[in-house]
Amino acid sequence: MVDRKTAPSIKNAVDFNIQLQPYQKFTLKNGINVYVIDAGVEEVIQLEWIFMAGNRYETKNLVAAATNHLLKNGTQQYSAFDINEHFEFYGSFLNRACYNETASLSLHSMSKHLDHLLPMVAEVLTNATFPQSELDIFVQNSKQRLSVNLQKSDFVASREIEKIIYGADHPYGKYSSAEAYDALTVNDLKAYYEQYYKNGDCMIFMAGKVPANALDLLEKYFGSLTLTNPVIVVNDEYTEPAQKPYEEDIAVDKDGVQASIRLAQNFPNRLHPDFKEVQVLNTLLGGYFGSRLMSNIREEKGYTYGIHSYIQARKTQSAWMISTEAGRDVAAATIQEVYNEMAILRNELVDDEELMLVKNYILGSLLGDLEGPFQIINRWKSYILNGVGNDYFYESIKTIKEITPQRLQELAFKYLWPEKFYKLVVV
Amino acid sequence: MITFDRFVLDNGLKVLVHKDAATPMAVVNVMYNVGARDENPEQTGFAHLFEHLMFGGSINIESYDEPLQMAGGENNAYTTNDLTNYYLQLPVENLETAFWLESDRMLSLAFSPQSLEVQRKVVCEEFKEHYINKPYGDAWHNFRHLCYKQHPYQWMTIGEKLQHIEDARLEDVKSFFNKHYTPCNAILVVAGNVETEQIKELAEKWFGPIPSGEEYLRNLPQEAEQAEARVQTITANVPLDAFYLGFHMGGRLSDEYYTVDLITEIMGNGGSSRLFQKLVKEDKLFSNISCYHMGSIEPGLIVIEGRLIKGITMQTAEKAVWEQIDTLVQNGVTEAELQKAKNKSESVIAFEDMSLMNRANSLAFYELLGDATLINKELDRYNAVTTAQLQATAAKILNRKNSNTLYYLAQNN
After folding, report:
1. Of A100, B71, B283, B372, which residue is least crowded by CB atoms under 10 Å?
2. Residue limits of the Peptidase M16 C-terminal domain (chain B) (predicted)?
3. ∠ CA A49-A54-A59 to the nearest 5 degrees?
């Protein structure tokens, strides 16, 4: 009979030799760098044009996001409908996204259609017109969406905590409002487009089954654009936005049955010497299903459907965030349990078995995250955009493999104090 | 082309093996032929609650998650109205750990009262988070009841009410397990750099000794053909009026399924779709509108769902939607529109198939439908649809008699 009491022997993930496929790098005539991962079996491709055009560079709220969103809503020759129709006819997806430092345009398509699609991408990046009618629709619909979101305690909590952490005027902390949408003008968008897209700083990331002529096509359609002019970096040095300790309760819905709880502290960026090690401590605390917070607050007490902690990593600075939606009547008890878990990490060494489990989990999960070309290029993209160097991947693995219980306790003692965390409760 | 081998153990467990030598990870997917549709109307939400209990320890193994995480693995599960699916991935070297864990919980759960007690609370918080504490959170609860009068699709997977979950007793848990969580009601898919012979050995070793159980013969009340249009109005504390319109359609294996999929694509998916272009962009009646179908195994629904621009009356908005429907029914679609929808289906399939986990999950789903080889026939089924078929299907389904309309109105508007 099979022995079901004893676990089969395993190979520890710390003993794996995990490799990250290197990218190829090419430079177009005008200096645009192209990073490529050619891999995979499906005949599909992902291309991303990244511009230094995030909200860090805007001088008026929402201009970066609105410009990015309306890039594909009309050019001199084509209407928004024509552009959508073109990409959708080839079964492809043209998306855009705006972050703090960067803003991007991304294309997902079958590899065979690339030559039909790239000319239209170039059109969008050189001839966008930002029609007033499109801006009006965008403003109207964005305001409507915002009015719905403002009734959700989790939405309100997530943006308020960032405001508290970074400050209301900081690119990482400021947020949308109906007034800010109303203040947007076509001229704002055109000027932003001119400076940060047409004359901006661009790089291209390409991954998937790359057709033989892909680089020639990129050279043809993007190699002569007047891109790559350097952007003036605005000054957004961090200033302490509020006095600590900071507590705030916000009421969204008087009948709310759950409280959105956010605890957060400012934390340095990826280049800080503690950053990689703290990732391990964070995983232990609340970074995976078996974490201390989940085990205690969900699996033992049933206060919540989920509780997570994470380093919300951004380029210049980060936040260490603990986030949960908990029953309204157990909100205070939930927060107390979080504090208790911090105390245990400060006061007691993690035992070897739990630490081995966390290491194996992180590394196994990392291995799983490298599946396929899109995942691989996304990892490289993060390293390149954050300026952490090409060895970051292997340095991280080394850190995970080598970290000790003593070091974790030191880090807990340095960071995990309730009074270091801002506390926000939204009902 | 997704290749696989298939065999059946003596106890009835169906096993599919999909080899992919390019990845260091293995995926193990166990699909059980039970969903919210199989629940007692007085004990809804049970299939989903049960999914939570599957992580509360099994007969020989105290914790499911810890050994899996120790082996570098991750897992999750989901419950739908049709089925319950458990999936994990881990480094292929540690594959046997997955067999050990999954077979033990198929053999028997620990049925710990503590686990039931806690997971009842967790699921109640999940219920609150998604369906009570959110604007429009109860829309689907109402809309399902409007559309389905007999069939159990009338309730949501999370359940009818918190009370049903709070009342769950350990003896219900046990009988649910014994009825549904048996080898003959399950499908095991293993994917990754594995050999079929090796999987056969592991399956025989770990799952072979589990008693077969009784095959579950589904005998659910079927929905009678709808005889007249139905309308319901709800008023709630939301900022915007919302509009839901549903039509009954055939099941997953019906001839019209692929045609319907293309209809919804043309009508309401993407920036160049008809409803978006006409009603959001040109007429500015909705801030967003979409058209999709439920993808359910038994006869499902085509749904048109939108939020109105403030100041637009429901009457105006509804009339405009029907104009688009009537235009489709009367004039059909162009060859180019149909080709666009087919091209999109092709690329969606290709993108989905990039993930090993998706492939394993799809194989299990098609096997549950009765034939895993369907996985490689999808594209042909889409490509076979003609504009004439599309128009005929639209006429058959998208009519007033078959319609269910929910007005979800903002208070003080």
Report:
1. B283
2. 170-344
3. 140
Of B271, B313, B315, nearest to B289 by C-alpha is: B271
For chain B, the domain total comes to 2
Which residues numbered 37-66 in A keep a CB inside 8 Å of some CB on B?
Answer: 40-44
Where do we find the tokens 């025989």?
Answer: B204
Range of the domain at A391: 247-426
Alpha carbons B30 and B16: distance in angstroms, whole number: 10
Q: Give the Cα separation of B403 and B388 in Å (integer).
A: 22
Cα distance between the two ends of chain A = 55
Task: Over range B382-399, report the average pLDDT.
Answer: 98
Share of chain A above pLDDT 90, in %: 86
Residue A251: pLDDT band with limits 50, 70, 90: confident
If pLDDT is split at 50, 70 and 90, which confidence band does A40 have? Answer: confident
Q: Can you tell me whether residue A180 is helix, strand or coil?
A: helix
A205, pLDDT greater than 60: yes
Cα–Cα distance measured from residue A191 to residue A171, given in angstroms and rounded to the nearest whole number = 19
A345 pLDDT more than 80: yes
The DSSP element (H or E) to which A86 belongs, if any, is helix A80-89
Q: Tokens 């694509």 identify what position?
A: B265
Q: Check residue A242 and give its pLDDT.
A: 54
A394's enclosing H/E stretch is helix A392-402
A172 and A47 in a common domain: yes
Q: Is residue A395 part of a domain?
A: yes
Beta bridge partners of A176: none
With a cut of 80, say whether residue B46 has pLDDT above it: yes
Across the range A411-415, mean pLDDT stands at 97
The full DSSP string for B59-96 is SS-S-SHHHHHHTT-EEEEEE-SS-EEEEEEEEGGGHH
A203 and A256 assigned to the same domain: no
* Spatial distance between the Cα atoms of B318 and B150, rounded to a whole number of angstroms: 27
Q: State how far residue A164 is from chain B, nearest Cα, in angstroms.
A: 24
DSSP-based three-state secondary structure for B158: coil
The answer to whether residue A106 scores a pLDDT higher than 90 is yes
A320 pLDDT exceeds 90? yes
User: Does A2 contact B205 at a Cβ distance shorter than 8 Å?
Assistant: yes
Residues of B in contact with A326 (CB under 8 A): 125
Helices (H), B235-376: 257-268, 274-275, 314-331, 335-352, 356-369
In a domain, B216, yes or no: no
Query: What number of CA atoms fall less than 13 Å from residue A74's CA on the CB side?
Result: 14
Tokens for B265? 């694509």
Is A77 a member of any domain? yes
Token pair 């162009």: residue: B334
Rounded CA-CA distance B94/B87 in Å is 15
Q: For the stretch A181-220, what's the b/e string if a residue is b when 16 or more beta carbons lie within 10 angstroms of its beta carbon? A: beebebebbeebbebbbbebbbbbbbbbbbbeebbebbbe
> In this predicted model, what pLDDT tens digit does every residue of A386-403 receive, in sequence order?
999 889 999 999 999 999
The amino acid at residue A91 is G
The secondary structure element, H or E, covering residue A51 is: strand A44-51
CATH code of the domain covering residue B155: 3.30.830.10
Is residue A177 one of the residues assigned to a domain? yes
Chain B residue at shortest CA distance from A10:
B94
Please, which residues 103-162 of chain B have a Cβ atom closer than 8 Å to chain A? 103-104, 107, 117-126, 128-129, 132-136
Per-residue model confidence (pLDDT) at position A61 = 96
Number of compact structural domains in chain A: 2
3-state helix, strand and coil shares in percent for chain B, rounded to the nearest 5: 45, 20, 35
